[in-house]
Amino acid sequence: VDHPLIEVGDYSYYDDSRGPEHFVARCVRYHFDFIGDRLIIGRFVAIAQAAQFVMNGANHPMGGFSTFPFQMFGFDGAPDLAGLPHRGDTVIGNDVWIGREAVIMPGVTVGDGAIIGTRAQVAKDVPPYAVVVGNPGRVVKLRFPPETIAALLAIRWWDWDAEKIARNLPAIAGADIDALAACV
Questions:
Q1: Exposure of 180 by Cβ count < 10 A (0-12 exposed, 13-18 middle, 19+ buried)?
Q2: Mean of pLDDT values over 153-167
Q3: 86 is catalytic
Q4: Do strands 130-133 and 138-142 pair parallel, antiparallel, or not at all (unpaired)?
Q5: Are 148 and 175 in contact (CB under 8 A)?
Q6: Which of 3, 22, 31, 60 is catalytic?
């Protein structure tokens, strides 16, 4: 991905049976440079086919009688684009799994370690290590107890260099927080 307003962390991938090379065109919707919002994807993120990141360019003016985006079509006297709703950058944390055809709305932050289920429609921020499903997307559970989540967020294994990660894969892929904490 070489778009100046999209950052993708190391080891993150998009799985698409048609090939991943068109990720931006297929998955990042309504992302106009003049709006300036960013899509930030952390490290070790797995994105399934047809996931969608809806950016702030999808928003329409709602303060007047019409929601039509007149300014996009060059109408003189149209309201300034700065007046459109802007929900900020969309941020996907580290070690996140986004299921097939999931939709992430503008300005949402998905916390580290979260899972977004297939076809979930995510319009609100997602806490770290939460599992979100449905439309509207809702947290159905946390993957681990709060003290384990706090320890994982403190350890931040995804920030380790590749050699340290490789040496400690059994602890990272396992479910023993004490074993992982011993690797720090």
A1: buried
A2: 97
A3: no
A4: antiparallel
A5: no
A6: 60
